[in-house]
Write a structure and sequence with these properties.
- This protein is mainly alpha-helical.
- 36% of the residues lie in helices and 7% in strands.
- It has a two-stranded antiparallel ribbon with strand order 1-2. Strands 3-4 form a two-stranded antiparallel sheet.
- It is built from 5 helices and 4 strands, in the order αββαααβαβ.
- It folds into 2 domains: 61 residues, no CATH class; 51 residues, no CATH class.
Length: 141
Amino acid sequence: MEHSSLLFENMKFCSICRGALPLDYEDELCPACKENQLFSQVKDYIRSKDVTEYQVADHFDIPRRLVKRWITEGRIEYKEEEKRLDTLHCSNCGVPITFGHLCQKCYREQNNLERAGFATFQEDSATDNKMRYLEKGDSSK
């Protein structure tokens, strides 16, 4: 019992997830919790403003590749607009996409699914190239 209390005296813990951190770690949050907190701020920012990935990166002083990673992971996506979609393509067939790795058709084929909750693409005459946050189960936009 005495040994385990000594073990915890020499450790520091993340204030959110309680994960162990080195004593010389300068922040109160672990890297994963810091990124989740940042993503939450980015999500709120995207919801309140029509912005591009460049504007998000500039506003939060973060690398654009982090914003691109969130797009690739499907956590945020481009609003529909042909010119803007040239930056992200389906890894299978090469068609422009708004988020993730696969277009809707290739996703269905690869997973042998007909609709299974995949966000549907909608033709829109909007001409902006802004971003939006994807709600879980949101297939309306």
